[in-house]
Amino acid sequence: MSKIKSVYAVGINDADYVVQIKETIGYVDGKQKQKTVWVCPFYKTWNGMIGRGYSEKIKLKQPAYKDVTVCEEWHLFSTFRAWMIEQEWEDKHIDKDLILPGNKVYSPETCVFVSRSVNNFLIERGNDRGEYKIGVCWDKQCGKFQALCCNPFTKKQENLGRFVEEDQAHKAWLDKKLEHAYALAAIQGDERVSKAIIDKYENYGSNS
């Protein structure tokens, strides 16, 4: 068994195999310079999760993780790995608050794996959208509010029209977003993910 190592002073790497492989690519001032050529996907996910929960450096850089923690049972790598093996995880990212909005604790009850397309669909980037409601911008040329929505399948912005009122443009965005939500939910393998995607936009007014 590999030597048990602490991760961020909290996580316990009790793997009985090598979780990452490095190769020497040269020397700098007489010291080896290495690069990682392989990382166990279970360890990579676990290590990132523990970091978001307990690394002060990560929390300072990304304030959204300020109050995030990991349930005690997942402090042990082997326990988390056993859970992850049973999930549909390939080419997906672990998510802690999709099925329980506002959740701050990584746990088997609250976490699911989501694809990049789902993750991108749900991210709203509120700090980057400017002074108007989400999905809305001002068209100076025609003096109206323009509604735009990114299609999660084509990855292209769809022009939904121009409106006199900001609320009208925002509603056009929300209607299209919900339409895409249903289409995206229909191709998910996890019913919890499908339900969460639809719920987010069916109840958007009450949750935003």
Structure commentary:
This protein has a domain at 118-208. The mean pLDDT is 93. The chain is elongated, with a radius of gyration of 21 Å. Helices cover 35% and strands 26% of the residues. It has a three-stranded antiparallel beta sheet with strand order 9-10-11, covered by helices on one side. The chain has a two-stranded antiparallel sheet with strand order 1-2. A two-stranded antiparallel ribbon has the order 3-4. It has helices at 41-54, 56-61, 77-85, 116-122, 166-185, 191-202, 204-207, and strands at residues 5-7, 11-13, 20-28, 31-39, 69-70, 92-95, 105-106, 112-115, 136-139, 144-150, 157-163. The chain has 208 residues and is α+β, with helices and mostly antiparallel strands.
Write the layout of secondary structure elements.
Layout: E1 5-7, E2 11-13, E3 20-28, E4 31-39, H1 41-54, H2 56-61, E5 69-70, H3 77-85, E6 92-95, E7 105-106, E8 112-115, H4 116-122, E9 136-139, E10 144-150, E11 157-163, H5 166-185, H6 191-202, H7 204-207
Parallel strand pairs: 5-7
Antiparallel strand pairs: 1-2, 3-4, 6-8, 9-10, 10-11
Helix pairs in contact: 5-6
Gyration radius from CA atoms, angstroms: 21 Å
| Proportion of beta-strand residues | 25-35%
Q: Main sheet?
A: 3 strands, antiparallel
- Average the pLDDT over all residues and give the rounded result: 93
Strand and helix order = EEEEHHEHEEEHEEEHHH
**SS-based class:** alpha+beta
Overall number of strands = 11
End-to-end CA span = 49 Å
Question: How are strands sequenced across the largest beta sheet?
Answer: 9-10-11
Q: Helix segment count?
A: 7
Please give the share of residues in helix. 25-40%
* Low-confidence region ranges: none
Shape descriptor reads elongated
